[in-house]
Amino acid sequence: MKTLNVMIVKSFLSIFIFALLFFVLILQLVDLFANLWRYLNNDVTILQILQVAYLYIPKCAAFSIPPALLFSISFTLGNYYSNNELISIFGSGISLFRFVFPLWIIGFIFSAGGFFFDEYVVIDSFKHKNEMTKNYLLHILQVGTAEERQEALSFIKTEFILSKKTITIQK
Q: What is the pTM of this model?
């Protein structure tokens, strides 16, 4: 039984790591391309963009854990089914509950870990990311044209309103 559990966990974790990296990469690219025109209009350097992207990684990881878990569990069980390994496992008298029990434990651990990760890492890093983004965009208020200033102000007001709503909901 221990050998079966180790086999399940190994196959699950390898798929989970790749799925997590893939989903984080997708979210990073979406954020980068959504804000790229702002960065280019405000002459933000590549190093500053990389700093903002680095601070967004924890938020991306927090968003990516649930779909990566779902994908990797489904893929692992589908792999066992396609290789006819489930027939031999269930034929040897192991119940479905006992077979997926290690995956339940891993899912519970990642769910609890995700909660604490959000509380202690994601909130601070996302706050610093928003502050850096605002600082880079505030530069345009000092040196930009009237149209650029208006655009930057509307973006900053939108971010402030969203932040204020979040704070109001938490109270």
A: 0.75
